[in-house]
Amino acid sequence: MNCKSKTCFLVFLGIVFVFSFPKIVFAQVVINEFSSNSNPEWVEIYNQTGETVDLSGWKIIDASDTTLSLDGCISSLGFRSFEKNSWLNNSGDTIYLKDNQDNILDQIAYGPDGIIGIPLDGKSAGRDPDGVSNWVIFDSPTKKDDVCVLPSPTSSPTPLPTSTPTLEPVTKAIYKINKAEDGNGNPLSSVKIYIDNNYTHHEDDEILTFCTGCYCDNDKNVPCGLGEHIIKLEREGYSDWSESKNFSAGNDFEVNP
Q1: What is the pTM of this model?
Q2: 44, 54, 136, 246: least buried by Cβ within 10 Å?
């Protein structure tokens, strides 16, 4: 076999190795203690993280794929214990902890080929202290099962309905007087505005508003209510200009005297 063939063969073996074994991820929640000769048998897990972990879809299995499904949650630095009758092999077994993506988070083999011996009836095997890699046999099990409640999801505030703005009814009339001009289009000066023969102290190029309670002068001496009015412009050196208008709400007039 030449060197190139050897390289290809090694690559092939590497691929087979990667895909032939289950995925193992760094354990943040670990198998912490177990009892394989009790009734029921149980496994305790420990959460080393700073957050509550949802256990939905998680499971504990043994070497023969007997499965114990987990539920609920485990609090930060908390413990949960799960029980099942007659599922762990008394003469030795391997216990796996898997998450909801089927990743192996942790495993412990016990018995003649394991890293810890077989805990006999009334005893357990566990990490000492909690969470470390050192396994011992406990003459008195320290099984713990903390209460855990998943935090309620924060609900988004219900948006308030957008109110449709109420259109205010039109209650006034507009009368726009443009700048008065002579026959050549030149603006006239000193053009005075009268309403019903009352001087408004305004000149042309003015907008007057007619409504209930309105006035056409700043001193409120010249009423400009709705209804009929005579508008007159007094033009120095020219004859007066006037017209009669009946004002209703919503009217919008524009004149060129």
Answers
A1: 0.53
A2: 246
